[in-house]
Design a protein that fits this description.
alpha+beta; 3-stranded antiparallel beta sheet; 15 strands; 11% strand
Length: 481
């Protein structure tokens, strides 16, 4: 080897060590950044020696795609579980002490006691108080359900706004990647940012990717709708600020295609939007139907037949024309919101609790008999009589009112239990997928520090080579005089 060749080799080594050290230093500086993918300097040999030809970014396309799917499914499942947990809290939590079924059971028991002792005013007042609790429970739960729908609608609006922002930002980095790839420049930082945006987008809506020329990415939703293709597609939604049982929320559209809501406790939704639509448009409305059917049945049970016409008795609808047809066996939207106790039997409002025994709209106890109990016994018997319920309530269509109201709690608990199990499974899968991806892309400080030690030794070897060349040249010059 000539002295000039040795010097060039040393210079090449110094250059390579400098570039490799810079890459390692950048890795160490970004070790705590979850969106950063490890870089490595790639060496290639040529006639002039080895040199760094590119800085390679650690990646695994298959794991990245699986990670996006896992994020979408876990996000949707956790969103649904949060909604179902909130519904459970409306009913009092673990023991469901605020559920209409709990108050109905007390009403049934005290009504039977009153029927056995129809002359006891205190028992009459207890029954009226129990009836008031039932009505208040239906009113309060119904209002809470509609409030939850409004909150879900607002969350959808926030998610749509965020999705549009992320898609706009995605275009910025995707353009940088395309231009840099075409020009042959380093695009690793832009790729990091683009992948970070992908994970954020996948939390909102399920997303799949298609790589094209110059590292260009096209994005599609999990059901195949175009989300981004050179330009972001419009995601549109009109919020509905106030919800009642009769209000239907607006759809979310991506590129003019409606986003489908999820189904089931183990929701089919991918991303938070699909799960929020499921809560707003199915879970909450179905539960509202169950409340409305409970209210309708109560009004019918305690109605009075006056001259061949059924009229409201103990329970009344505090809304004009709300479900006033007793022959209807289908749900009346919003009835649970307006049901109340007839003021004629509320003592604090100037009423008489004993009218429940004698008749509210007409005098059935014509002899003013203290032991008259026919009406009370018919009401107690109605609690044991199967009724017909709307199929939209999604539980038994023929059952007693207590069985139906208890079935409503069971329906919610079954759905929540399935959602809890699915959430645990999807969270675990996401954790394993992320761990596998991080094993490929994340920075190991131990490895980087070991690499720096190797580079230090390489630097020392190159320095010794330069020193030896210097000594030899000096000796030659001295020999030449």
């Amino acid at each position: 080897m000539s002295l000039s060749t040795a010097m060039k080799t040393a210079q090449s080594s110094f250059s390579n060590v400098g570039l490799q050290s810079a890459v390692a230093s950048k890795n160490i500086a970004n070790a705590s950044d979850a969106s950063y993918a490890r870089r490595s300097a790639v060496l290639a040999t040529a006639a002039t020696g080895a040199s760094v030809v590119e800085t390679q970014r650690a990646q695994n396309e298959a794991l990245l795609k699986q990670n996006l799917v896992s994020i979408s499914k876990s996000s949707a499942q956790n969103t649904l579980l949060t909604g179902l947990t909130n519904m459970k809290m409306m009913l009092g939590g673990e023991d469901y002490e605020l559920a209409p079924s709990t108050y109905l059971s007390k009403l049934r028991d005290n009504l039977q006691a009153f029927a056995d002792k129809p002359n006891e005013v205190s028992l009459a007042e207890t029954v009226i108080a129990d009836a008031t609790d039932v009505a208040n429970s239906l009113n309060g739960t119904s209002l809470a359900v509609q409030k939850m729908r409004a909150e879900a609608d607002a969350d959808i609006g926030t998610a749509v706004t965020e999705l549009n922002r992320l898609l706009s930002e995605f275009k910025t980095y995707n353009d940088q990647v395309k231009q840099g790839t075409a020009a042959g420049t380093d695009v690793n930082d832009a790729l990091d940012q683009r992948d970070k945006l992908l994970t954020q987008i996948s939390q909102i809506v399920g997303v799949s990717t298609l790589k094209r020329t110059n590292n260009d990415l096209a994005l599609y939703t999990s059901d195949g709708t175009v989300l981004f293709e050179t330009e972001p597609r419009a995601v549109t939604f009109t919020a509905t600020p106030t919800y009642t049982a009769t209000v239907t929320g607006n759809q979310v559209y991506i590129d003019g295609v409606a986003v489908q809501m999820g189904t089931g406790g183990n929701t089919s939704a991918q991303g938070s939007i699909g799960a929020l639509l499921q809560i707003r448009d199915y879970t909450a409305p179905t539960f509202q139907t169950q409340l409305d059917e409970t209210a309708r049945s109560l009004i019918n049970m305690f109605s009075e037949n006056v001259s061949g016409t059924q009229v409201d008795g103990l329970f009344v609808r505090n809304g004009v024309g709300v479900g006033d047809d007793f022959s209807v066996d289908t749900a009346v939207s919003g009835l649970a919101t307006v049901i109340g106790v007839n003021p004629a039997v509320i003592t604090s409002q100037g009423g008489n609790a004993m009218l429940l025994r004698d008749g509210i709209n007409d005098t059935f106890n014509t002899g003013n008999n203290a032991s008259f109990s026919e009406l009370l016994k018919s009401y107690a018997a109605a609690f044991e009589t199967p009724m017909t319920f709307d199929t939209d309530a999604a539980i038994d269509t023929t059952a007693t009112i207590l069985a139906f109201s208890t079935g409503s709690v069971g329906w919610l608990e079954q759905l929540r239990s399935a959602a809890t199990t699915a959430s645990d499974d999807k969270t675990a899968l996401l954790g394993r997928t992320q761990e596998a991806l991080q094993n490929v892309t994340s920075v190991s400080l131990d490895e980087e520090l070991a690499l720096l030690l190797d580079l230090e030794q390489s630097y020392k070897a190159s320095a010794k080579l330069v020193s030896a060349v210097d000594e030899m040249i000096t000796a030659l010059l001295q020999a030449a005089g």
